[in-house]
């Protein structure tokens, strides 16, 4: 660990996006859910903040409240199919190189922060949920809205409608605090360095003859081409094969926060799980340490470069 790396890990207190007025309803009464509400994400801080980059791992959360599992028709292992398992560990050395790392602790199957808060399927909830005012997004139609209906591979999570207030509860208790923390870190980073680069870290299924990493910059709309070139070059120097925007061009986080003209840049990174994961068992493979070292080499190469 280098001199920049004392890495303060703080269970960041939720930043209010709106009052959690529904916290006393439904799941808000559950002690395990309330404990997760008190520590919904972790921010790993560098001891010496020297980089305009900010890394996030929104889908590596693995704290499954017993009440959530009980409400599902699936067991914990099946729910974990939606995780980007261990991505937070792969990027865990980011603070050693002078940047922050924000990681969710709640699982993606419970609430997906890489979606707009409006991407909700009313059919998932009991009577009284407001009817949608517009067409469903493709992601909602596929069951992959902000409150997911299915895990990866299309297996349904629930066998009955959720209570009316559950969507509002999850948004207020987890989604909005996460995005408030992300917004604060982006704003503080830009104020310090004049620009900020968000690297939103994910994993993807292995594909035959596929690449190790896919960079998504919304086809140049969320990040300048020169900056995407720099990220791609650092990945290749670390030993990864790289594609850009196909098949993953970036999700909600990338499109929402990436505004290059305002010096807010955002890039999504999808890492091939075949490099580090035994998918059927959701366990680290023999390649995990090698992949983690390569990720650290990528981060070191990228963050050592001056300016943007």
Give me the CATH fold name.
Aminopeptidase
Number of domains: 1
Helical content band: 25-40%
What is the total tally of β strands?
A: 10
Query: SS-based structural class?
Result: alpha/beta
The CATH class is identified as: Alpha Beta
| CATH-level-4 superfamily name | Zn-dependent exopeptidases
Content of β-strand: 15-25%
Total count of helical runs of at least 4 residues: 9
What is the string of SSEs from the N terminus onward? Answer: EHEEHHHEHHEEHEHEEEH
3D architecture notes:
This protein is of the alpha/beta class. The chain has a single domain, classed as Zn-dependent exopeptidases (Aminopeptidase, 3-Layer(aba) Sandwich). The protein contains nine helices and ten strands. The strands form two sheets. It has an eight-stranded mixed beta sheet. Strands 9-10 form a two-stranded antiparallel ribbon. Helix 7 (225-237) links the parallel strand 6 (213-216) and strand 7 (242-244). Helix 7 (225-237) crosses helix 9 (288-303). It is globular and about 55 Å long. The chain starts with 7 loop residues before the first strand and ends in a 5-residue tail after the last helix. Residues 1-25 have low confidence and may be disordered.
Quick recap:
By secondary structure, the protein is α/β, with parallel strands linked by helices. The protein has helices spanning 31-38, 66-71, 76-79, 87-90, 138-141, 166-193, 225-237, 252-257, 288-303, and strands at 8-10, 41-45, 53-57, 100-104, 196-204, 213-216, 242-244, 264-272, 277-278, 283-284.
């Amino acid at each position: 660990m280098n001199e920049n790396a004392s890495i303060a890990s703080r269970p960041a207190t939720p930043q209010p996006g709106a009052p959690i007025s529904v916290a006393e309803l439904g799941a808000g009464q559950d002690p395990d859910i309330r404990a997760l509400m008190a520590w919904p994400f972790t921010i790993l801080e560098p001891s010496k903040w020297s980089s305009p980059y900010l890394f996030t791992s929104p889908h590596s959360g693995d704290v499954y409240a017993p009440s959530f599992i009980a409400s599902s028709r699936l067991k914990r292992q099946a729910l974990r199919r939606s995780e980007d398992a261990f991505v937070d560990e792969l990027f865990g050395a980011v603070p050693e190189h002078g940047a922050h790392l924000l990681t969710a602790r709640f699982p993606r199957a419970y609430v997906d922060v890489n979606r707009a808060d409006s991407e909700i399927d009313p059919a998932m909830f009991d009577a009284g949920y407001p009817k949608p005012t517009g067409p469903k997004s493709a992601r909602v139609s596929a069951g992959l809205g902000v409150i997911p209906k299915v895990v990866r591979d299309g297996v349904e999570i629930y066998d009955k409608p959720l209570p009316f207030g559950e969507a509002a509860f999850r948004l207020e208790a987890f989604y909005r605090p996460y995005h408030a923390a992300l917004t604060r870190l982006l704003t503080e980073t830009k104020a310090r360095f004049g620009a900020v680069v968000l690297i939103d870290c994910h994993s993807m299924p292995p594909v035959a003859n596929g690449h190790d990493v896919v960079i998504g910059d919304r086809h140049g709309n969320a990040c300048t081409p020169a900056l995407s070139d720099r990220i791609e070059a650092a990945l290749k120097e670390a030993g990864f094969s790289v594609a850009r925007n196909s098949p993953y061009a970036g999700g909600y986080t990338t499109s929402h926060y990436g505004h290059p003209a305002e010096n807010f840049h955002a890039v999504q990174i999808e890492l091939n799980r075949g490099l580090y994961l035994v998918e059927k068992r959701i366990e680290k493979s023999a390649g995990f340490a090698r992949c983690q070292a390569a990720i650290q080499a990528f981060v070191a190469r990228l963050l050592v470069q001056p300016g943007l």
